[in-house]
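// run 5 | inverse folding | seed 20
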């Protein structure tokens, strides 16, 4: 995915974006949590493998993973770096949105 495609993807409604890699242990631990949160909060989930989209990761300033971002109609609302337990992640992403 390139930057133009990414911008189009996050334009409609709320989108939870998960930047991850196959070799990343914390990313793998976070996967089921992110999937649960996206269903519970009724937001679209977009998973981006940084190894498959390195130019996009670089353009968005992704220097470490996992990174979770919440977008609403193209506007980035939240940016979380690192793995967190589900309650902490839910609070960090969805409180005050």
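// decoded
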């Amino acid at each position: 995915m390139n930057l133009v495609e990414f911008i189009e993807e996050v334009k409609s409604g709320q989108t939870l974006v998960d930047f991850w890699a196959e070799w990343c242990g914390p990313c793998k631990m976070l996967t089921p949590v992110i999937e649960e949160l996206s269903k519970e909060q009724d937001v679209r989930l977009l998973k981006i493998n940084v190894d498959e989209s390195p130019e996009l990761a670089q353009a968005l300033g992704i220097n470490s993973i996992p990174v979770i971002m919440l977008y609403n109609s193209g506007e980035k609302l939240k940016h979380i770096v690192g793995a967190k337990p589900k309650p902490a992640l839910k609070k960090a992403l969805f409180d005050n949105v």
